[in-house]
TrEMBL record:
Family stated for the protein in its record: Belongs to the DegT/DnrJ/EryC1 family.
Protein name: 8-amino-3,8-dideoxy-alpha-D-manno-octulosonate transaminase
SUPFAM superfamilies membership: PLP-dependent transferases
Documented EC number(s): 2.6.1.109
Species assigned in the record: Formosa algae
């Protein structure tokens, strides 16, 4: 997944353009910037790649999710349905807006289980936020139908799945708003950064204002701009956008390498009859940033992880024991350990997570191993890796 593995001359050139002009800010200073508008150029590239009307860059993927929720009208006391398997940023963004994260079970897609989503809907539900984890995707058609029936917004957290598609559409472009992250370990990186994409003109305008202190961005005199509403500073810098611009132009190159490496590993693992693969909905094409598979039970999976480590295989994760990605270890969330006071109803909803059973999620995450696909491997590296992985896993079955 990490685009940082392949930094080259294009990243250097884009960054040097910005340093040479000296204007590190994405807005204003028109006369001094030698015609360089890296953030604007990256937004234009994203619109083309993602086949959407609008793209708005922000300072991180977490900011992207926050802005997406805000423009979708999510606020105090609203409930947002999201999966038990995600990155902590998803619930952080919900809580930042005063809304309540409602965690529900995942299925064999490693994302939202449709029945669990339906069960979780209440009069307070405002949005459903599938998280396309590890390059695969949620059952978006079913989720969209639920959203239409209940008048909810569909917000795609596609931070880990840039380049994947569903019904031929780029992931992130299927729902009302889509979110991307360009943090250091993502498929394309800007060091830090993120984006939202949408076809909704109002959402685009609101995201533009909200992410820059509510500035209306009318005219070329920043000091004379008005503030139609309150906002925050979620701006990306020109330096970060410059790196992202070079990287987005290489997205297809990265995806092709990932698919090649992924396919070699997957074909090798198919020789293990006890091993099954994560389900990708038939409408979808993943971005091949991770290869995910299931073993028979928790004990075998734990042993397989140890065997992989012993064989020198790095970059494989067992999220069951991980405190960034899976509900089981999110004690700070369950105990509602916030820096400042939050409403009692939010606290109650969070505390309730500690007694809630997520048996179905456990069933999948306990048996899941997720292996990062690197760009910098040679074909010989991948083939040798495949042999070692098969041998290690077979040794514990
Ligand atoms: C990385 C990530 C984010 C947040 O992105 P940052 O840029 O690190 O803030 C959000 N959601 C998911 C699923 C992620 O993997």
């Amino acid at each position: 997944m990490p685009g940082f593995e392949l930094f080259g001359p294009s990243e250097h050139k884009e960054v040097n353009d910005v340093l040479d002009s000296g204007i590190l800010m994405r807005y204003g200073f028109d006369a001094m910037r030698n015609g360089h508008w890296k953030a604007k150029a990256l937004e234009a590239e994203l619109q083309t790649h993602m086949q959407v009307k609008h793209a708005q860059l922000v300072s991180s993927g977490t900011a992207a999710v926050s802005v997406a929720l805000a423009v979708a009208g999510v606020g105090t006391g609203d409930e947002v349905i999201l999966p038990t398997f995600t990155f902590v940023a998803s619930f952080e963004a919900v809580l930042m807006l005063g809304a309540i994260p409602i965690l529900v079970d995942i299925d064999d897609t490693l994302t939202l289980d449709i029945a669990a989503v339906k069960d979780a809907i209440t009069p307070k539900t405002k949005a459903i936020m599938p998280v396309h984890m590890c390059g695969g995707m949620a059952r978006l058609k079913e989720l969209k139908e639920i959203c239409e029936t209940h008048n909810l917004k569909l917000i795609e957290d596609a931070c880990q799945a840039i380049g994947g598609t569903y019904e031929g559409k780029p992931l992130g472009s299927y729902g009302d708003v889509g979110c991307f992250s360009f943090d250091f370990v993502k498929t394309i990186t800007a060091a830090e950064g993120g984006a939202i994409i949408t076809n909704n003109d109002d959402y685009a305008t609101w995201a533009d204002h909200y992410s820059d202190h509510g500035h209306d961005h009318v005219g070329s005199d920043r000091g004379a701009e008005t503030h139609p509403f309150l906002g925050y500073n979620f701006r990306i810098s020109e330096l970060h956008a410059a790196v992202g611009l070079a990287q987005v132009r290489r997205l297809q190159e990265f995806l092709d390498i990932q698919q090649k490496h992924y396919t070699i590993l997957k074909d090798a693992l198919k020789s293990i009859p006890e091993l099954t693969f994560r389900t990708i909905p038939e409408e979808g094409v993943e971005n091949y940033s991770f290869l995910n598979f299931f073993l028979t039970d928790l004990e075998t999976t734990t042993k397989a992880m140890a065997a992989l480590k012993h064989a020198g295989i790095d970059g494989c994760f067992h999220y069951y024991d991980n405190n960034w990605h899976y509900v089981r270890k999110w004690d700070h969330l369950k105990e509602a350990k916030t820096l400042f006071p939050i409403p009692a109803q939010t606290k109650e909803a969070l505390n309730a997570l500690s007694t809630k059973s997520f048996k179905q999620s456990d069933h999948y995450i306990a048996r899941n191993i997720s292996c990062l696909i690197k760009l910098s491997w040679t074909e010989a590296d991948v083939k040798q890796r495949a042999l070692k992985m098969v041998e290690a896993i077979k040794s514990v079955l």
